[in-house]
Each structure stands twice: as structure tokens, then as C-alpha cells.
Amino acid sequence: MPISAGGVAMGAWPRVAMEASELWVGFVGAGRMAGGLVRGLLQAGKVPASNVLASAPSDKNLDAWRELGCRTTHCNLEVVYRSTLVFLATKPHILPGVLEEIRPAVGSQHIVVSLVAGVTIQTLQRAGAMVFSRGSNAGDEEAALLKSLLSSCGLCEEVPESYIDIHTGLSGSGVAYVYLFAEALAEGAVKMGMPGALASRIAAQTLLGAAKMLLETGEHPAKLRGDVCTPGGTTIYALHQLEKGALRATIMDAVEAATNRACDMAKD
Amino acid sequence: ISAGGVALGAWPRVTMEASELWVGFVGAGRMAGGLVRGLLQAGKVPASNVLASAPSDKNLDAWRELGCRTTHCNLEVVYRSTLVFLATKPHILPGVLEEIRPAVGSQHIVVSLVAGVTIQTLQRLLPPGTKVLRIMPNLPCVVQAGAMVFSRGSNAGDEEAALLKSLLSSCGLCEEVPESYIDIHTGLSGSGVAYVYLFAEALAEGAVKMGMPGALASRIAAQTLLGAAKMLLETGEHPAKLRGDVCTPGGTTIYALHQLEKGALRATIMDAVEAATNRACDMAKD
């Protein structure tokens, strides 16, 4: 007897299609990470909102999804039944229970993508940094689909799974190191007499400009750094301070600590 | 008197329309090059309206490739331009100002990019009444993501300030400030890009230590910087708020941040901004 949930006869599944516009996309879990990803996808016009279904235990997060035009439910199974591409976006400790719950509904037509670790999502278009790995049954077609879908959100690269924890330490958490850096840059300027709001704007713009130079010139950061260093000029005086403060070692410590924590959490 | 075939009695008509503006650069080095690339890419000024001078062809080849006109004669730049950017090295500027002074008139807008040279000095070395502004850009103007601040001299009015701002906003953030902020901007942003490059290098190297190949690590590091910068600029939220948003309790981020605090990262960066700013002030006094 066909099982029905939410009025949809489960025997009649949506036709499987690799066309992104015909793709039925589901999210199990609707928190910040999932929200960032779906905003990026919708903004890029990759998937119509009406093709997106998200589940969460309460309405707390789901209101925002409905405002975007997505469908919502409290039933994880419904997401799996009604979607081809299923993103898992629960908290790590919840995931095992959820997997056990949805397992009976998962079939060969599904592409299951876990966001539970190692994906950095920015809510803004084309500024994210994401890496993904494939399981043994996900082939070139699935990888290409995911990459094409997510490239609208930023840099999206396939990597060996061992890199995912490193990516967490470098980029997932890395954005926080940049926010700290921006705060300190602005505060240095405030100490020297610049008002805070202006200093903050200039600090952020400085980060943006330097990042664009790195990405668009493709030059080694050390080369670009050298280009700015006029002999006896202001920059080399500043860089001496950064070396005295062991800035590089401190940042490497941070990436290492975050990566190790990610590995430890994965073992739990 | 004639120079280069143009009768110098017949000057280009003065106009505030950017597209009809005749723009000159005295000095054609890296910073000037960054600025003109930004202007041209944004379509603010046609390349044929730009004339740059330099002692040798070394820098000027690149300008010709962009479609700009070039010369070895500073006076020609002043005669043929309305908006004149001064972009020489600091120790060369006084000599250049003495050279071009006879040709500077009330129709000119003189904008100095020269580090450490104050508006007071510029006004002293140019004819009385000259409209003078001083600007400090940074190199990412090349990719139209620059950060620039400028100040006006006593004869530069709202119209000149508005023209400069409208022209240069195509290269990035462009704000008018009191002259005392210019040295701070040097320490924060002019030199600041170098601190970011160092930061990017270290981020990537941390990932390499953990096992990621360097090229991938560098790309991700740069993209991480870009994304965080965009979040700051586009949300307008305080960096501490955005930082907190990323800190899941007991998660990877807070472990990393603890390392950054142990390493006194913030104090180190403030030291750098201070050192660069102080150096800028010292250089200005020379």
C-alpha cells in the first residue's frame, strides 16, 4: 500500500532529472549553514524556491525559508521522499538519529550531500569557499551537478575527504580570524586618531582590495607584499612589527588548532 | 609658443564633465598606473584624454599599451590637462613643481598622490590661488577595489571635491577627510594591504602543515579573505558580532581564536598600524 505523507502519494516520486531547474532540492535541518546555501542558490537563480523543501523540528528557522518562497515541513521523511538532491544540515550529534529515521526512504535516485562538517557558506553570492568529497557511489555526474550548483555561491572544489577538516580550520573558521584582523586594523587606526566608523570601513575595504589582488593577479602573496615595500617606507616598518609579534606562527597555530578540533569532533 | 604642434594659446576648454576632462599625470609609476587603470576600466575617462610624463620610457610603455598618450615633458602635461595628478617620488617633487609652476593657472585642478608632501607645501610651491587636493590611494585601485582618502587645499571647493570623488569612486572607496587622517590611512590601508598578504600567506601555510597542497590552500585563503571582507562591507555589522556568529560552542573556531589571543594578534596588528603611521608622519617632516 503506498504510504502517504502530507497528501503526496509516495509511490509517485518526482521524475529524476539532472537539469538543475527541474531538480527537487531538500534540506534536512534549516539552520544558518543551510540558510546561507539556499540563499546563494536562489539568488543565483539556480533552483526555483518552490522546488525547495526544508524540514526542521520547530518553526523557528522555517519562517525565514517560507519568506523566501520555499516549502517547509516538520517531517524529515517528507523531504527525502519529495527531493532528489538532499542536503543534510543537522547538528552533528543529531545526525545519526536522523539518518536512521530517513534511511528507509533513501533510494538510488537520491544524491545525499552532508553539510554537517567542512562547508563554508557565505550568505552573499560568489564569495563562499566550499570543498566537497564524494562517497563510493557518487559518480562524475553527481559531482558535476553539485559543483555547478554551488559555484554560484563561490569557490567550490572537489577534494579528498581528508582535506575537509583542514578546510574547516582554514576557511570555515578562517572567516572569524579575518573579522578579528579587521577589528584590530581599525583599532590601530583609532588609536592614531581616526574615527572608528571610517576606520572600520577602510579596514574592510583594505581586506577586500588585497583579496581581489590575490585572486585576480594569481601572484604569490610574498611577491605582492614586496611590491608594496618602498625602501625605508611605512610598510616595511609595519611588517617588522608583524614579524616581532610572530603573526605568521600565531595564524598557523590557529589553523592547526581548528583543524585538530575538527578531526577530534569527527571521531566523537 | 608651440609645443608638440599645439599652439599653447589655445588651451582645452575648461569643463567639469568627466568624459570631456583632460587628465594628466606627472610621474607614471605604480600608484599612478593603478589609478589610471581603475579609471579606464570604469570608463570614466577615455584613454586618449590621458597624458602621462616620466623621465624614461620604462614606465610609459605600459601607459601607451592602455591607449594613453605619453611624453617626457612635464610642462606639456600641465598645458594639455585640466586635472593634473602629481605622482613623482617625494624627493623629486619640489624640483618638478618649480619646473611646472609657470604653466599652472586658475583652470587647473592639481591632485597630489605624493606620500608625505603636505597641502601646505604644495600650495607654497604652486602659484597662489591654485586649486590643490591631496590624495592617498592604495594599490588595489588596479582591480577597482581600492581605498582612497583625500583632502582639499584652501582654494579647492565643493565642485572640485565632488569631481574627484565621482571620478575615483570607480576605483573603490573614496572619502574626503581632514588632512591629519592621511598618514593614518597610509598605516591602515596603503601599507595595510601588505599585512593582509602576510596574513594570507600564513593562513595557507597553516593548511599546508595540516596536509593541504599549497596552491589549493592559497586559493581558499584568498577566497576566505574576500568572503569575510564582503560580509563586513555588505552587512555593515561589527566584526565582533560577525565573529561571534561563527563560534559554535566547543567548535573549531573558538579553539582557533584562543590561539590568536595567546599570540596577541590584535596587539601586533595595532603595533603595525602605529609604526607605519608614525613613519609616515616622520617622512612628512623631512
UniProtKB/TrEMBL annotation, chain B:
It comes from Agelaius phoeniceus (Red-winged blackbird). Keywords: Amino-acid biosynthesis, Cytoplasm, NADP, Oxidoreductase, Proline biosynthesis. Pathway: Amino-acid biosynthesis; L-proline biosynthesis; L-proline from L-glutamate 5-semialdehyde: step 1/1. One of its GO terms (cellular component) is cytoplasm. Residues 23-116 form the Pyrroline-5-carboxylate reductase catalytic N-terminal domain. Belongs to the pyrroline-5-carboxylate reductase family. NADP(+) binds at residues 87-90. One of its GO terms (molecular function) is pyrroline-5-carboxylate reductase activity. The keyword Transmembrane does not apply. It is an enzyme of class 1 (oxidoreductase). Homodecamer; composed of 5 homodimers. NADPH binds at residue 74. Oxidoreductase that catalyzes the last step in proline biosynthesis, which corresponds to the reduction of pyrroline-5-carboxylate (P5C) to L-proline using NAD(P)H. Proline is synthesized from either glutamate or ornithine; both are converted to P5C, and then to proline via pyrroline-5-carboxylate reductases (PYCRs). PYCR3 is exclusively linked to the biosynthesis of proline from ornithine. It is found in: Cytoplasm. HAMAP family: P5C_reductase (MF_01925). GO terms for biological process: L-proline biosynthetic process. This is Pyrroline-5-carboxylate reductase. Its EC number is 1.5.1.2. The lineage of its organism: Eukaryota, Metazoa, Chordata, Craniata, Vertebrata.
